[in-house]
């Protein structure tokens, strides 16, 4: 592909709490190219949201802290910027859309105010220009009667409509990177599809890069170019979307795929949940964090945490036993994984 | 087509023993040093109240005309007032008054408030309307004004009637009781309780209204658990935390009210000592009569403040222990 | 929402009638025979009969209540019988009300803005030494009763020759009323405002902390807004909404405070009038005072509820 837009190196984020230091993100390294869509997959507490909030520098500090790492965006380390410089990046070059549209919009301000304030600030527009642009944006995300709805308050919109407003807000200053933090999780399934379609379309129209955070592999299957799978603050597997679905080489990814229902699956087939709980982020094990829940575990896994290892073409997995995974995964999945599942 | 990942949903919440939950609350409370020291002060207050007459070195009305307005000394640890009465003794007896008022008002308003709130919140309908309107009417009067009004109007009549009744029936102890000034005091406490329950009832009602809709209550109703059991076993335990917080946060206010009313001359009547009327006597109720004997004013002020502070610390501590997300 | 307001408005007259009925019944019949109580036990029977007739107290209760209320609505709350013999209660109150209102206004004007500022500050610097210090001061301020605060502060700050020889301060004159710009107002206004300061600092802090953790504040930050815009436009606007409901509470607290403070400092306001009336058992004054405050209080609370609907769009459209 083309140039690297975002280069995250060895990023760590911790939170100091009464019960000890929570290691939320533990040395994450990845890149996003211009115009690329990256999926970030993992369960609650896997550090996917926290790592992106760290990129945006939206982690409250204290209790949060960033002991190491670089977040190079267009050649600049965002972590080294002053607060004022970072402020000018946020919403302007990098925008973020949050999970819960019900609580992420300010209840006492109109939609219009909330969209235009960023335009006035970053783009130097006056009130009229900003309003016109806001109407365009609302039309872009398919909100009917855009002019009239600008003066409405968030609670007058449905959940799906609010998420469209959030996306319009995120896109308002034409960012190069849009971070979408589980934007469809709080919505009905039909609405989810509408939102992903809108984002897919806008991505082609506007050509920005997207990082789409989700716990649901199914949602990003048709959306992402590449997928990072995260587990307890580590990236455990990364590959192109098709490769990941066809050839998962980390037991956790296999587990995720096993728990997705498929249309082409016979009725008798059961979903296979991943047993057990993720490790305590305060006392991380020295070995592999997935050890307790893993069916492929060996003594080595207990002693040493596997780094990301190249296991194929642009395919990395953090598993000592990826060869064993390759051989036995089909048995576990009890079905052939040939095609990505459509959302 | 439901494309979800069941494996990734949060694990079911771990059911904890209620007793374990209370232990955890206590652990959090005990970590709060102001709250813990507040608790010690409160325990001391009640011990003083309980054993007051045994602890006090003199009689609370005993005058010593040889040492009038005397500064603190070995003989009178906290000095004496303008009638030569021992301040330590009077403060100890004053503690009895505060403790008594707090116990009575808290008990009455807790019982009434929880009962009325529970009835209104659980049964709804006409019961709710009636109780809610009653609360509205009570809330229409600012607290102190209401008590003041009661004290100015019904109190004298009540006390007089009580006295007449006692004399007519030749009840010597009742005559004594009325003459001691404690009857006045009872009326004021009733007024305090009457206001105290209304606030609590509102809280309990709101709690019950929301709890009533919860699944575990609905399922209990569905299998035919009788109403009083639902209230006592299902609703009340779950509404307990806010009730405890509200009560404990209110105790400091009751202590202040006791002092203020006595100060204004409508609470405990002299010569019976209350911290409020000790302060009023010593300050002279008017700035021009300010004495140049500091201990007479500072000692009551410091002690009242310490006790109220203790109640507020405990209230705060309980609030934080029961609502850890704050 | 409109239905809610209409219901409140319909209930208002009922509530007002109930309040007046309670006040009147307790005021007139609570203490026993009102004339006897007012005139004392040794008044001549013929004078008592005459007063009774003059005040319409020989008529049945509903008639008396009706008369009292119709007069009250016309602004006549009866006459003072003892201390200000013959003067209309309404005149007595009207003359003193401005003083009390001004005193309370001064108290709110210094304390409320300061409280909101301190509350925001404490919320932003949460768990810093300043936050801890402010929290301590707030608890201390709500724990010192007014009756203790006034002698202590008077001792510390009032001018030497005005009270006893042992005061420290050369600063402040106290006693009486010299208008809102006179130095006499400082101590009473400080004491009256302290409660407001404490309560609002605490509540603003709590509300701010709540709001600063809200998702929409994170959204505002993610938009790259300037920090003051995030704080003022997004956080503070939401944080102030619940504070509106406290206004009624403050009003009640202030009237209670005026009562004690005005009689302590000799300020000729309604609080002092009411205290004197209590001491000299002037029931018409006490009734008028109670009625006035209860009505104001009820109207105020209604107003707050309606105001709430307007400051919070979520309620407006429900």
Describe the structure.
The complex is a heterotrimer of chains A (343), B (326) and C (318). Chain A has helices spanning 48-55, 83-89, 111-122, 127-140, 146-149, 159-171, 189-206, 217-221, 241-246, 251-258, 299-303, 322-333; strands at residues 4-17, 20-33, 37-41, 64-73, 76-77, 94-97, 177-181, 209-214, 226-231, 234-240, 309-312, 315-317. With 343 residues, chain A is α/β, with parallel strands linked by helices. An eight-stranded mixed sheet of chain A has the order 6-7-8-3-9-10-12-11, with helices on both faces. In chain A, strands 2-1-4-5 form a four-stranded antiparallel sheet. In chain A, a hairpin with a 2-residue loop joins strand 11 (309-312) and strand 12. The longest helix of chain A has 18 residues, at 189-206. The relative contact order of chain A is 0.14. Mean pLDDT of chain A is 83; it is low at 336-343. Chain B has a single domain (78-322), classed as Orthogonal Bundle (MetI-like fold), CATH 1.10.3720.10. Chain B is mostly helical. With 318 residues, chain C is mainly α. Chain C has one domain (2-23, 97-311): MetI-like fold, CATH 1.10.3720. The termini of chain C are close together. The relative contact order of chain C is 0.13.
SS-based class of chain A: alpha/beta
Number of domains of chain A: 2
Give the overall silhouette of chain C: flat
**Assembly level:** heterotrimer
What's the β-strand tally of chain C? 0
Q: What is the assigned CATH homologous superfamily of the largest domain in chain A?
A: P-loop containing nucleotide triphosphate hydrolases
Helix content of chain A: 25-40%
Record the SSE blueprint.
The complex is a heterotrimer of chains A (343), B (326) and C (318).
Chain A: E1 4-17, E2 20-33, E3 37-41, H1 48-55, E4 64-73, E5 76-77, H2 83-89, E6 94-97, H3 111-122, H4 127-140, H5 146-149, H6 159-171, E7 177-181, H7 189-206, E8 209-214, H8 217-221, E9 226-231, E10 234-240, H9 241-246, H10 251-258, H11 299-303, E11 309-312, E12 315-317, H12 322-333
Parallel strand pairs in A: 3-8, 3-9, 6-7, 7-8
Antiparallel strand pairs in A: 1-2, 1-4, 4-5, 9-10, 10-12, 11-12
Helix pairs in contact in A: 3-4, 4-6, 6-7, 10-12
Chain B: H1 18-31, H2 33-55, H3 87-123, H4 125-139, H5 143-152, H6 154-168, H7 172-179, H8 182-212, H9 215-222, H10 227-263, H11 275-283, H12 294-322
Chain C: H1 2-29, H2 34-39, H3 45-54, H4 61-73, H5 89-124, H6 129-143, H7 146-157, H8 186-212, H9 215-222, H10 227-243, H11 246-265, H12 270-279, H13 283-311, H14 313-316
Helix pairs in contact in C: 1-13, 5-6, 5-8, 6-8, 7-8, 8-10, 8-11, 9-10, 11-12, 11-13, 12-13
